[in-house]
Amino acid sequence: MKKAFLLVLLLISSTNLFSQIDSTKVAFVSYWSTGDSYDFKISNIKQQWKKGQLVKDEKREYVANFTVLDSTDTSYTVKWSYQNDLSNDYDIPKVFLDKFTKYKTSEIIYKTSELGEFLELINWEEIGEKMNNLFNDIINIVGDADTEEKEFLKKAMMPIIRAYSSKEGIEQLLLKEIRYFHFPMGVEFDIRTALNYDEEIANILGEDPIKAKTTLSFEHVNFEDEFCVLKQKTRLDPDDSMRMIKEFFSRIKIDSEEMEKAFENAVFEINDNNTYEFHYNPGVPHKIEAIRESIIDFNKEKGRKIDKTIIELIYEEQ
Fold it and tell me: How far apart are the first and last CA of the chain?
């Protein structure tokens, strides 16, 4: 059951056509050109508490590059590239890292609309094959000396391997930073009032989406500098979150009477609090901070988890 609690935590961790002449509205539109390139510092922070005590505090930093490969009247083709931290990203023991060097670099090619809205992942088949090979190598290499551990890895990774077999699954699992980057693009907002709406968040297991309630509001707008700060608060439906986690355990065949009893009184609360600091012209983020807070009461264990992603533009020195 300890492993079950850890799997819950893992699963939870695992969105010139306008002129700015109206001081009540802000339009996020991409004014990019072929060859435009920006570097971003990415910080991923994971913190976990049990019984009020901080038991995990990890931070990973790396540089990602955003390059416009092609620009047409109706779309942009973009490359997002970075170096993987295999030890932290996939919990690969350092003693085995030499066997995984071919997976260190990732390149994601995707397409956006002429406004900068994310449209589709282009090289998804190449990525899917690479990730499938990576997961199989983790199972076979890391679990080689322990049959029980190998079987556990197979069960735990099977839903993720299945998700990486489809274009939609890869887009949901792998493009977190890219989704944040493009979230406001192509939308004109009225800055005077908060926008409240219901939305559906894709379920990585491919089942029914998770319902959520979201509020968008502006904290600051500077029309002269064409810069703004947009706040996004989202609360995932607790019942839908519970349903997703139950489905996950079912797929990895952790079903038992003890597990059913644990779910009877379980509590899963997931809340997102994101801040977008943006140069809305030319459509490039200055800083994005995305925070997911998960509160878990499962199998008589209470915990709290914070997953934070920070994307910061690296400015060229003058």
Answer: 56
Q: 256 forms bridges with which residues in the sheet?
A: none
Distance CA 289, CA 309 (A): 6
CA distance 214 to 199: 7
In order of 1, 41, 125, 131, 153, the CA distances from 78 in angstroms are: 43, 18, 17, 21, 34
Map out the domains of the chain with their CATH numbers: 2-313 (2.30.230)
Q: What is the pLDDT of residues 78-88, one digit of tens each?
A: 999 998 887 77
E strand residue ranges, 148-266: 188-190, 195-201, 210-222, 227-236
Give the largest CA-CA distance in the chain: 66
pLDDT 10s digits, 172-207: 878 889 999 999 999 999 999 999 999 988 776 656
**DSSP run (H or E) holding 134:** helix 124-137
Are the CB atoms for 181 and 288 separated by under 8 Å? yes
Write down the pTM of the prediction.
0.81
Task: Tell me the C-alpha to C-alpha distance, in Å, between residue 235 and each of 116, 210, 274.
Answer: 26, 10, 12
